[in-house]
Amino acid sequence: MFQIFPKPTCEETFTSLLETYKERLFGYVLAVAHSHYLAEEITQEIFLKLWLCRHELPLVENQESYLFTMARNKTLNHLRKAHYDEKLISALKSQMKPSSNDVEEQVSLSEGDRLLQEAITLLSPQRQLVYRLSRNQGLDHQQIARQMRLSRNTVKNHLVQALRFIRTYLDNNGVFIFILILLAA
Asked: N or C, where is the chain less crowded by C-beta within 10 Å?
């Protein structure tokens, strides 16, 4: 008599993939991206996506190939975007008028940046996360909503409220709007 083993659950399949491949996947991304931080970020994104689609994992025939294809695509997309961003920043800098080396202006800019960071830390943790995902990582409302498991409108409302709070905070602390524009760029 032979024993029939039950088919693993989606969660068990995910856990097995995580334990089996997380180190190899991290090493692969690190070799391509040459950045420890980026390799951690991309590896986390891959496993987050796998978790969100865990119900489909048992259907994937070659899970190793699937994982490493995801890793390659995510890494290359990120590197392409970073290269594009660098070119854009470089083009913008070349079109900007040279600024003066006025010490007062430099102090105002650094004070404005400090106050901006202070304002961000005063936001609720969820609003901080929405703000940082939008402004620092460049995610759109839909991407943030998916990542945080919120509705798109909730994300939009958090972002509107965060920006309103930051603007008011900076105004109340004497930061002029042109500094805010420079900091947002």
From this structure: N
Residue 71 to residue 1: CA distance in whole angstroms: 43
Q: Which amino acid is at 148?
A: M
Count other C-beta atoms under 10 Å from residue 6's C-beta.
Answer: 6
pLDDT at 8: 67
pLDDT digits (tens, 9 = 90+) for 24-60: 999 999 998 888 988 999 999 999 998 898 888 888 8
Q: Which residue has the tokens 């900076």?
A: 170
Which H helix or E strand runs over 167? helix 152-172
Domains and CATH numbers, the chain: 10-93 (1.10.1740.10), 99-184 (1.10.10.10)
Distance CA 98, CA 20 (A): 53
Return d(Cα 13, Cα 88) in angstroms, integer: 42
Residues in the chain, pLDDT under 50: 178-183, 185
Contacts of 132 (CB under 8 A, 6+ apart): 120
Question: Residue 74's pLDDT is what?
Answer: 92
In order of 16, 93, 135, 185, the CA distances from 96 in angstroms are 52, 5, 22, 12
